[in-house]
Amino acid sequence: MSATENNRSKEELSKCIKDIATQLFSEHGVESVSMHQIAKSAGVGQGTLYRRYANKADLCIGLMQDTFDQMQSTINGYIRETANRPVHERLRGVIGILLDFLGEKSKMLGVIQAQLMTESNKDDFYQSPPYLFMHGILTDLLSELPDEDRLKQIDAPFIAHSYIAVLSPHTYRHLVCVKGYSHERIYEQFCSLYIDPLFKS
Length: 201
Hints:
By secondary structure, the protein is an all-alpha fold.
């Protein structure tokens, strides 16, 4: 443990690590920055860093927690405020919020998802709080769809899972960076292909 490290409280160390990681991720990209670089730049031992964050995905999750909380609060607020509106409109609205979140955080989310899906000693992405939250919200909305408004019987949990799978961070980044799709076009294409056909016109 360095002398500098000794002189800082746990809260100060955690804030320093997060600030340095955010700076390095912004400058070099999340994928290119190693835990060793973060520890060295923050002036802490690797043991100190790994005691707080088991891997880069854990660190990203720490950085993202406030953003996740904000997204959840935004979606929950939207669900409450639009309780009397048609399910079709509300479903499109929730997907819009989720896509805005992906647009801002797709790089970091991609690291988290990849890490969680490849580490056998950790719960996978489909047990993570963001997935469980979004799956619950989407399943509940799809289950509210009245029989007279739907074109056919639907399996709400399966469709909710499919929505999240299609809107993965990696898919979003590929569509934007490689295929040249705009954020708005991704939204409209998703809604016209995966949401609108469930409803009677």
